[in-house]
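hi! just following up on the protien thing from before. the input was this:
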Amino acid sequence: MNDCSAFVELSEALRKRSLMNPKTLPAMAAFALTLTACAFAREDAGSAASLTKPVLKRGSTLITDHGAKPDGFTVNTKAIQTAIDACHQAGGGKVVIPAGRFVTGTIHMKDNVTLHLDEGASLLGSTKLTDYDADIVGAVEAPAFNRCLIYAHKAKNIGFSGKGIVDGRGSPAAFPVKIGQKLGERPMLMRLVECEHISMKDLVFRKSASWGLHLLLCRNAHIDGIRIDSQNNNMNNDGIDLDGCVNVLIENSVINAGDDAICPKSTTTQVCSNIVVRDCTISSHTAAYKLGTSSRGGFVNMKVSNCRFHDCPMGAIKLLMVDGGRLENVEISNITMDNVGGPIFIRLGNRGRLYDMPTEQVYGKESTSEGAPVGILRKVRIRNIHAKVKGNQRDRLGIMISGIPGHKVEDVILEKITISLPGGGTAADAARVVPEDVARYPEQFFFGVLPSSVLYARHVKGMVVRDLDVTFEKPDARSPVYVEDVEGMEQAGVRCEIITKDETVKRDTTPAAAKTKQ
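and the predicted 3d structure came back as:
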């Protein structure tokens, strides 16, 4: 991690310096991106390509020159596709969507093409399901979301840019969650499959009917300065899903998601690796940053820094390994959290899903392992976190880290963490026995109210808790720290204050105050 940190620090310095000198910005910025990618190279020698921007031709074509009409009614799928195909055949360039409201069904991106939306341009998803292609690579984890608005398969050097808006218009009226007893089909905004050298810059994406931007087995993607607004317009509105992707940088973006905001996934044996998220502002009804739940191959070399997470009632950071893969070398730092539920949830489980066929999620606690062996979750460092935890549902609050019997989470460091919590835990809460739920879908509140007010750790090997400062809005009858089957625990500088309207009561909760179940 030391060599990696040195590269990243150099990358950040170069990036900032390039902003001061416009003449050197392209070269310095590109070099900085390459350093970042190299810093998080996969452990397998020679397997990581440097993160570079697409090399695109300068030619451009207007979709209106191919018959597209900006009236907000005409379905322009054929005209837009003709423009993309012509641009591709001419060697590449920009396909420009000018100001206006252009309705379309599924469009297919091609090599060396950038889709550019001028300011005032809106690319509107059709509200008719039949305008979306069904004969494309689907979503193994969610087959009801197979269709999408923008699609690419094995494309190289593709870009998305401009000050315009991509609007899925994914309302429940157009795309209901259920039709009778069956799940209704709901298109994503984008799916890119096995693509290389992808650039997204400045666009606004909004109102997806299901997931937003879904990248599957893609390499070398740079997402910079985009905005995603998909809250309260439907269900399962993830922001960005990265399934088995390698070398991805997400920065300077604003994401307001109904479901997981940034969510690396793993439905194949391809490990999702070298993913950097920085300088983003994120809100989510479910999680700001989540690894999983699909975790067949796993996640290696993941970094999140300098972000603000806000209004995340079901939790902020979730690191999950439940389908047999490996999760390791994860560093999360310099995060501010406002109005969130549980700030950190780390779970090693044994759902064991093979993802050898399309399947929807199963949430029941009666679940059993589906066959994949138990995976590995280790080497996680979370530091410099300032979290304001809110909410009346106490089963969603606190920090939880848990493996399963015989399989431990390993080498976790929590340091320099400041948390404010509602408090209010009772003696009955302190006596609760938390179920193992070895194979259940991993969500913190499924375990119920924790017997600790701050940190619950079970089945962990090698854990450091350093400089944990906690304030409570009202008294809490539970011990701040509860550990069970934890070996190699180092704890120092754990401090609590109970703050009420009338008084402040300080309590020293150094290691001796932690409750331990042997």
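The helical segments are 2-20, 25-39, 77-89, 427-430.
The two ends are 33 Å apart (CA to CA).
cheers
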